[in-house]
């Protein structure tokens, strides 16, 4: 750090103080009646609006969440230590907002957008964007057509995610939900390097600070922090901070979306947010409903996830978008997108609990992760039978669509027959064939952590699997085969892979793939 | 303020309006509020469930002896209904309701030192100018923590011209451009 001379400090201070106008302020105020559990009840503030920020003596801020006959319920965005009964509360005439700009990329911030990574303030121009914003209307949207490559074979082949889609990642604890999402962020490195970054936002809600630090480290080490922002509301933060953290993430995502760029946001996880919201609601004495969640917990998630969208590729229309903050008005461009990967943690695989069913119904598909598969060594532990992507089919590149089209059905058939074959009866050749092929496909779909595959590699290996080119390779050697096969293709047939990447699946390409696979599989006999 | 207190206050206001004793009772209510507010012992005694109702009645009657019939009856009724603890809020509520009915605006001026008459007149003039009110009842609170200047509060609006507020603003200014 450059040395600062005392004279300079005085000069800066002098400048600031000379520009400071001591003025009396006219405010609308109220009086604190009670305070506790992160909630304050305030008498007065008769014109305050729902969702408005109010300021307590001592500078602490709160959000108005309850307007009642003779008092106002305020959730505090910080420790309630300094607040006493009878202290004054001021209206600020602002709603909760976060400062977003290009400088926020690569940073770790809290719910209020304050950096918590110790790297100083956020540099560059920033725009104050509201946490709560209405989702873009129908005419400002476009169907999802572009793929968001997750780099995970099982997902990109069978449950493809498109840009602007909302794909739920659901499963019990310890099934690799976070890993799937982090790997997806890591895979965007390719696009960053190519100069067309997909900006990623990872929202950590109610997690251990050490977990968040670990994730930040993984992203840093793999060079993913260059295009990623982490929003963290840790387990020790007050419940309102945990409730609003996803909204902060969405506001950051919207900045990229509305300036015509693709963004990806991971909410890890929304069940914790719902629990925090339940806590706040119960403290505000709102009536509890099913599982003690308040009545509007569905709206909490639906309004958040609706903000993920693919914006129409027309600057003129995009500029007219509803509920656009004034600061962004002259920066708006069309064609941006915000893809959401919300995570829900189930208890004992119970997807019919309240929050999982809600979020399943809101999102455009779900990726189910299962403990049994995880323990059986199938990682990522995706149950492809019940995982779906409701819009993703349009968002696959052509070659992938052709190659992987039958994979999902094949695997479903395989699982059925496999269960049957466990009875030990004699099987005919056709059945055996399906089972053998299925086993190899399961091997192919396995993938190590932090090891994303490029789309062309994925197509090449899935082609080999679905055309049964591996029938001569023993199941336990499939991984080895895959490695060698892709190595050969990358070294000797780069042009073929480029064709695949461009979406072309010509006879020349398939012939080469088949030939390479045949040559190589002879080695494993 | 509890809803019960508002009900009691409304009843008294209606009653006194009929008998044209509102103004007199208004003065007494102000007195009651001031007395209770100023005495912690009295507050605790009224709130305490251990003290017998009869004792509360006796104490209140002795303190507020010589008040009008309505006030004495209010105290009796409150004690009978085991609501003696509400007395202060009833008085407060009566004052607000009376003020509203008569168009009186209550202004609270917080200063670091007690206001002298000259200053009080100036502040009164200022309040009248700001609110277009004809009758202003001025309450002076002393709070050394504001250092200097004054804070004027009328209803939900607060005009903060205190030195402490200026310091706060300066602190914020210096913090933001860090």
Helix segment count of chain A? 18
Could you say which structural class the secondary elements and strand pairing of chain B correspond to?
Answer: alpha+beta
CATH topology of the largest domain in chain B: Peroxidase, domain 1
General shape of chain B: globular
**Main β sheet profile of chain B:** 4 strands, mixed
In total, the number of strands of chain A is 16
Distance between the termini of chain A: 63 Å
Radius of gyration of chain B: 20 Å
Listing every helix as H and every strand as E from the N terminus to the C terminus, the arrangement of chain B reads HHHHHHEHEEEH
Structural class of chain A: alpha/beta
Strand arrangement across the biggest beta sheet of chain A: 8-12-11-13-14-10-15-16
Write the layout of secondary structure elements.
The complex is a heterodimer of chains A (525) and B (178).
Chain A: H1 6-18, E1 25-36, E2 39-44, E3 52-56, E4 61-67, E5 72-76, E6 88-95, E7 97-101, E8 108-109, E9 126-130, H2 153-158, E10 168-171, H3 177-187, H4 189-193, E11 199-205, H5 209-221, E12 228-233, H6 239-258, E13 262-268, H7 270-283, H8 297-305, H9 315-319, E14 337-345, H10 354-362, E15 365-369, H11 371-375, E16 388-389, H12 398-404, H13 407-421, H14 429-445, H15 455-466, H16 478-492, H17 494-501, H18 507-522
Parallel strand pairs in A: 8-12, 10-14, 10-15, 11-12, 11-13, 13-14
Antiparallel strand pairs in A: 1-2, 1-6, 2-5, 3-4, 3-6, 4-5, 7-9, 15-16
Helix pairs in contact in A: 6-7, 8-10, 12-15, 13-14, 14-15, 15-17, 16-17, 16-18, 17-18
Chain B: H1 3-19, H2 22-38, H3 40-47, H4 53-63, H5 69-80, H6 87-102, E1 104-111, H7 117-131, E2 135-142, E3 149-154, E4 157-162, H8 163-176
């Amino acid at each position: 750090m450059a040395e600062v001379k005392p004279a300079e400090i005085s000069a800066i201070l002098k400048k600031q103080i000379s520009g400071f106008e001591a003025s009396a302020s006219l405010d609308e105020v109220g009086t604190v009646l009670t305070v506790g559990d992160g909630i304050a009840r305030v008498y007065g503030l008769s014109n305050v609006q729902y969702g408005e920020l109010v300021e307590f003596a001592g500078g602490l801020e709160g959000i108005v969440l309850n307007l009642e006959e003779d008092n106002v319920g305020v959730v505090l965005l910080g420790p309630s230590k300094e607040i006493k009964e009878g202290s004054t509360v001021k209206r600020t005439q602002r709603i909760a907002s976060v400062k977003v700009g290009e400088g926020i990329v690569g940073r770790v911030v809290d719910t209020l957008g304050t950096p918590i990574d110790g790297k100083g303030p956020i540099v560059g121009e920033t725009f104050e964007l509201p946490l709560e914003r209405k989702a873009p209307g129908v005419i400002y949207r476009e169907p999802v057509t572009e793929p968001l490559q997750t780099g995970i074979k099982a997902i990109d082949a069978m449950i493809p995610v498109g840009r602007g889609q909302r794909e739920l990642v659901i499963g019990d604890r310890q099934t690799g939900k976070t890993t799937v999402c982090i790997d997806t962020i890591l895979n965007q490195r390719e696009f960053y390097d190519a100069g067309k970054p997909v900006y990623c936002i990872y929202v950590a809600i109610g997690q251990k600070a050490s977990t968040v630090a670990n994730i930040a480290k993984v992203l840093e080490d793999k060079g993913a922090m260059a295009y990623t922002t982490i929003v963290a509301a840790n387990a020790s933060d007050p419940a309102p901070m945990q409730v609003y953290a996803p909204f902060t993430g969405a506001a950051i995502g919207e900045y990229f979306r509305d300036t015509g760029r693709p963004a990806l946001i991971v909410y890890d996880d929304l069940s914790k947010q719902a629990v925090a919201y339940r806590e706040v609601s119960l403290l505000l004495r709102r009536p509890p409903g099913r599982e003690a969640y308040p009545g509007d917990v569905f709206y909490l998630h639906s309004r958040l996830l609706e903000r993920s969208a693919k914006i129409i590729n027309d600057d003129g229309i995009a500029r007219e978008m509803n509920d656009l903050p004034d600061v962004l008005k002259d920066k708006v461009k069309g064609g941006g997108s915000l893809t959401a990967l919300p995570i829900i943690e189930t208890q004992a695989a119970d997807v019919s609990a309240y929050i999982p069913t809600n979020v399943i119904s809101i999102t455009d598909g779900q990726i189910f992760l299962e403990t049994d598969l995880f323990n059986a060594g199938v990682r990522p532990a995706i149950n492809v039978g019940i995982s779906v992507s409701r819009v993703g089919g349009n968002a696959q590149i052509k070659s992938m669509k052709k190659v992987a089209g039958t994979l999902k059905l094949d695997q479903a058939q395989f699982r059925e027959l496999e269960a049957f074959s466990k009875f030990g009866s004699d099987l005919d050749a056709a059945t055996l064939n399906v089972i053998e092929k299925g086993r190899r496909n399961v091997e192919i779909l396995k993938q190590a952590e932090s090891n994303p595959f490029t789309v062309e590699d994925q197509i090449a290996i899935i082609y080999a699997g679905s055309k049964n080119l591996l029938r001569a390779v023993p199941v336990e050697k499939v991984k080895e085969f895959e490695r060698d096969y892709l190595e050969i293709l990358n070294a000797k047939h780069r042009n073929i892979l480029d064709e695949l990447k461009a979406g072309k699946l010509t006879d020349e390409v398939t012939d080469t793939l088949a030939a390479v696979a045949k040559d190589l599989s002879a080695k494993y006999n | 303020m509890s809803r019960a207190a508002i009900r009691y206050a409304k009843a008294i206001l209606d009653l006194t309006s009929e008998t044209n004793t509102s103004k007199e009772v208004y003065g007494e209510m102000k007195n009651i509020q001031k007395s209770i507010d100023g005495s912690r012992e009295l507050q605790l005694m009224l709130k305490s469930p251990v003290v017998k109702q009869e004792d509360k009645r006796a104490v209140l009657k002795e303190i507020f002896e010589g008040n009008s019939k309505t006030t004495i009856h209010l105290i009796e009724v409150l004690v009978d209904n085991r609501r003696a603890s509400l007395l202060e809020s009833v008085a407060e509520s009566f004052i607000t309701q009376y003020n509203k009915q008569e168009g009186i605006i209550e202004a609270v001026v917080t200063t670091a030192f007690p206001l002298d008459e000259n200053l009080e007149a100036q502040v009164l003039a200022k309040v009248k100018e700001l609110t277009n009110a004809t009758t202003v009842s001025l309450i002076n609170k002393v709070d050394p923590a504001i250092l200097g200047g004054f804070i004027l509060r009328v209803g939900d609006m607060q005009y903060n011209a205190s030195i402490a507020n200026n310091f706060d603003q300066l602190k914020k200014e210096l913090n933001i451009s860090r």
